[in-house]
Amino acid sequence: VLMTTKSTQRPIMNSYVILISKQLKLNYMNRLEKLLIIPFLVATLLISLSVEAQKKLLSQEELKEQKVYRSLSEAFFNKKRVYILNLDSKELTELPAKISKLKNLQEIYLRNNKLTNLPNGLFQLKNLQKLMLGENNLIMLPPEIENLQNLQELDLFSNQLSSLPKEIENLQKLEYLDLNWNQFSQLPASICSLTNLEKLYAEKNKIESIPNDIGKLIKLKELKLAENKITDIPSSVGSLKRLPELDLSKNAITTVPREIGHLSNLKILNLSENKINKLPVEFGNLKNLEELYLQNNKLNIVKSQALSIPKLKICDLSLNRISNIALSKNLQNLTYLDLELNKLTVIPGSLYNLKNLESLNLSRNKIEKVTKEIAGLIKLKELDLSYNKIYSVSKGIGGLKKLEILNLTQNEILLMPKQISTMSSLKELHLASNKLNAFQKKQVNNNKPKSAIVYF
């Protein structure tokens, strides 16, 4: 190299410089790659540990095998093993933020405490399926509730809630929602997006209306909205075709939509203590209805088509203004009928077609006679005709061989037929406050079945 000329040395030197530069750059890049890969590996490890910490959801059968933890201290000591935490009735005023450390928690019970708010940590429990917050002092539910994507049951019974966050509509796995005993004036419309909801309770609030979109909750099995201020039932309720039970009692409802007849699976319908004055004939389409409660309304006339319900077993029409009622021959499964406190002057003739009737209450009407047709009710066990204006009882009463209780208190009866002697199942005969003289009372005692006790 030394013997070469300056002109030949310069290119050789440049080559060496380029070679050395490339080597240095390569070494630098290798080191940089090593430095960059370290945080990547750390992040991967942390994610792996997090996934390991939050295990998959246990099935209901597997949950039954898990211990129920009943104190926070014990739960935090066994964080990874806690799937069920029951802190009911612990006088809690707050819930610690570190509740978020219980990553595997699937059920938490916080009922009957003194909670006024909820920590954000609670809404980081991704595995939570049951959140039971009944009987606290909550005035709001934070929008972070939407983070609980596995939530199936939410109990908010007896708090001070007047609204729900719109984000609740994102809880698409929710099946059970209890809003009873709160301060709602409207049923939150966001609830109507919970298409997997099966049970919805919002009794004893101040609700004035039901959202029109209620018909979207096609999986509902129970809808209870009793003791509110509801005046109208939306026609969309007819879309709830899987609904077996509907309770709208103790409201201010005046009319019932015809679409209610579309509820083909309805078994129990409670519309008692409202202001309903007419039943749509579509009531007769409720082919699976077994129990109907319409007491304390303003019904005047009941048409046979409205009660042409073949599976009906219990029907309560007491405390209305009924002066005329036609009972369909289709009511062959009816066993209980209550018509107390109406304005009937005679026992309706159509009533005698109810061959399987076991209990009949006609007290506090204006009925004057018990006619021979009464003998047609061959399966009757209880008959209440008290507080009427009955002065005549037909000997046909003796045909009630299965009757156990006969109440004729507070009438105008002068004479009881001797045929009461054939009422072999009679246990109680109530005749107080009538016009029977001493001789007639003696005759009743002589004619009554031995098993019966007479109350004068």
How does this model look, in words?
- It is a single chain.
- The strands form 3 sheets. The chain has an 18-stranded parallel sheet. It has a two-stranded parallel ribbon with strand order 12-14.
- β1, α3 (72-77) and β2 form a beta-alpha-beta unit.
- Mean pLDDT is 91; it is low at 1-7 and 40-52.
- The protein has helices at residues 6-53, 60-64, 72-77, 438-447; strands at residues 68-69, 84-86, 107-109, 130-132, 153-155, 176-178, 199-201, 222-224, 245-247, 268-270, 291-293, 301-302, 314-316, 324-325, 336-338, 359-361, 369-370, 382-384, 392-393, 405-407, 428-430, 453-455.
- The protein has 456 residues and is of the alpha/beta class.
- The chain has 4 helices and 22 strands.
Question: Topology, pairings included?
Answer:
Blueprint: H1 6-53, H2 60-64, E1 68-69, H3 72-77, E2 84-86, E3 107-109, E4 130-132, E5 153-155, E6 176-178, E7 199-201, E8 222-224, E9 245-247, E10 268-270, E11 291-293, E12 301-302, E13 314-316, E14 324-325, E15 336-338, E16 359-361, E17 369-370, E18 382-384, E19 392-393, E20 405-407, E21 428-430, H4 438-447, E22 453-455
Parallel strand pairs: 1-2, 2-3, 3-4, 4-5, 5-6, 6-7, 7-8, 8-9, 9-10, 10-11, 11-13, 12-14, 13-15, 15-16, 16-18, 17-19, 18-20, 20-21, 21-22
